[in-house]
Specification:
eight-stranded mixed beta sheet; 2 domains; alpha+beta; 6 helices; 237 residues; Diaminopimelate Epimerase, Chain A, domain 1; globular
Length: 237
């Protein structure tokens, strides 16, 4: 993780009028985030501000922005505390385009490390902590080297269509000549999985440009391409 004293002000009215906010840059398995400690929920994060922070050319640059706020300070977090009073901290996650997201598996691990590094929680190796998210609570265990998250069970986004056709959408990406069938599942947040015939197909993808999903899940989706490659399955996101 990289500590920075404050988000830089850009030469435009939005940034000129915005207060300076200390932040940390961190990543989990290459998924990178801007993290902001806001225990009392005083920092305002609208979609436009988040998108500008995440902009890789004119902002800080990140896949998303994560705000660490006490659950009691957010309506979503307060609702979780009724059944999970141990979930003191809430992961307020925003996608890079500024939209509000349920959660992110890599992001939750980075979030917990951020809490530890900031001295906001005391978590020894082998111990677990419960984190509030918009997808419910997630248990994260600190390991000797890193963190592990229990993502819980997966489910189909469209069970009937998945059972009938074994796919619920078509996905076209740069590097593919034709759209490929895909299946969307939920792991707390939506994922659309596209199987490819070979590892060569996977290597030929250009994922610098967003794939087209038709029909797309209502609130967007993460797209993963997978191919069998003995003895494992290879994946690109």
């Amino acid at each position: 993780m990289t500590e920075q004293p404050a988000a830089p002000a850009a030469q435009d009215p939005l940034h000129a009028s915005a207060p300076r906010v200390p932040f940390t840059k961190g990543h989990g398995t290459g998924n990178d985030f801007v993290l902001i400690a806001d225990p009392d929920g005083n920092t305002q994060l609208d979609a436009q501000r988040v998108a500008r922070l995440a902009d890789r050319h004119r902002g800080i640059g990140a896949d998303g922005v994560i705000r660490a706020v006490r659950s009691a300070r957010l309506p979503e977090g307060e609702a979780l505390l009724a059944e999970h009073p141990e979930a003191e901290w809430f992961m307020d996650y925003r996608n890079g385009d500024g939209s509000i997201a349920e959660m992110c598996g890599n992001g939750v691990r980075v979030f917990v490390h951020f809490l530890v590094e900031k001295g906001l929680v005391d978590l020894a190796p082998g111990r677990a902590i419960t984190i509030g998210t918009r997808a419910g609570v997630k248990a994260v265990t600190r390991l000797e080297h890193g963190y592990a998250i229990d993502m819980g069970p997966w489910s189909y986004l469209d069970p009937e269509l998945a059972e009938e056709a074994a796919s619920d959408s078509m996905v076209l990406a740069h590097g593919l000549t034709d759209p490929r069938p895909a299946l969307s599942i939920s792991m707390g947040n939506p994922h659309t999985v596209v199987p490819l015939a070979s590892f060569a197909d996977l290597q030929g993808l250009d994922l610098g440009r967003a794939p087209e999903v038709d029909p797309a899940p209502p609130h967007g989706t993460n797209v993963e391409f997978v191919a069998a490659h003995e003895p494992l399955v290879r994946e690109s996101v």
